[in-house]
Amino acid sequence: MRASVLSDWLAQRLDRGNGQPIYRQLHRLLQQAILSRELPAGSKVPSSRLLAQELGIGRNTVTQVYEQLVLEGYVSSATGRGTFVADSAPDEIVGAPDADAAHAARTSKAGAAHLASPSVQPATRALSTRGARLIAGAGVSKRQWGAFMPGVPDVTRFPARVWSRLHNKYWRRLRPDLLTYAPGGGLAALRHALADYLRTSRSVRCTPEQIIVTTGIHQSVDLAVRLLSDPGDLIWTEDPCYWGVRSVLHVSGLQSRPIAVDAEGIDPSPDDLAQPPKLMLVTPSHQYPLGMVMSLARRRMLLEYARQHQCWIIEDDYDSEFRYGSRPLASLQGLDTSGQVIYVGSFGKTLFPGLRIGYLVVPEALAESFAMASAELYREGQLLQQAMLAEFIAEGHFTSHIRKMRTLYGQRRQTLLDAASQRYGDALPAVGGDAGLHLVMQLPEGSDDRRVAAAALERNIIVRPLSGYYAQPSRAPSGLLIGYACVPDEQIGPAFDTLADAIDATLPQFA
Which of 256, 323, 341, 382 could form a disulfide bond with 333, CB atoms 3.0-4.6 angstroms apart? Predict the structure, then answer.
């Protein structure tokens, strides 16, 4: 093959204005040409001096590319002979006897003035059924910070100086065992600190051995589902519910049945009760996203039903620490006398989401199995973080931080409520704001809350459409989840005005 043919082809494809280094572009193009056999095995490539002259680039650039291709096995080089394309790809594929003939026909066309495009499109592979369901129902946002992102705490108020002191302490006195894989269940010191905290603050009845440290709610639910159910088993979920947990269930192979909630929490109908599930997933202390608290009568009913039918209850204690005007409520697990409740929590809202530490509290009979399965499936680490967190809790910084943030978030909640009332009065009522880090603003019946959320995002305001949390969004009430925790006090009013402009522009009745 003549050098000018390759040079012309490369010159047409090098883009000197896209900001990508010429070295990287040249390497990619030559690599693609070899993989597509447009540069057949055994063909000689131009010398570095000649190719550099033809392309008008530095010889060192071409030399570096050739050296990299030699290291990767695409070409071979011999002093005095030149550089040749290596014979590194199979010429025949079993089941494709005409591969060589097709290649020969393609590479021997007389009068070819230039190479064909080397772009190799990968074979299109369809997602699995559960993979497609996961992607279709994905609720994750591309942005995780800003007004009014629901469920995100004010990480700027985290006591970084204390955390930095602990961080430096453990690195100065480095223990090798903190840099290896975590033991089953997590670091013993953290499990002890968590047991003490949960007993006093959440009325959770547990020993340290019953606590399994995870990377958060998603992994906790995933582990419980894997160990306590089989594909095809029935699980009850609240409707509406947190989209992240719903996604975990979509790929688990379980048969999920959404159960409507009322003012007292999850409300199974007689038809639902006639078919006991293997698992129930509930948020009794603060239903997500609507915010109601499960009544004592409903709690006792669920526990008795689970005992009679040997169901497991997964209790997601979402945002239980942040209640405004009343003390945090006792856990459902604390009422359980038959060992049917799996209690899950995390530090994503109380400290910061990037910490990625959560936990389960499992019945004593399951503790050893859960600890072993956690180590077997996930090969956990983060022991330095766990050690720091254990000391952070033991020294009282955790409870102190929660007290401060509860006061701060309560003030921000009221500021948001005042801004909404000033703009709309009672026309757009807010619900679920007595706890947690967000409230739900109800929109008029028939409103498209997804359009409103999209219009808000165009104005750099992040809210979530309530309908997206329901199993059947088309039949769901319309509303917006508005998070206030991560918005500075002085920005809440102006940010709500911007959100209101999006509402007014989308809903004719407010124009």
Answer: 341
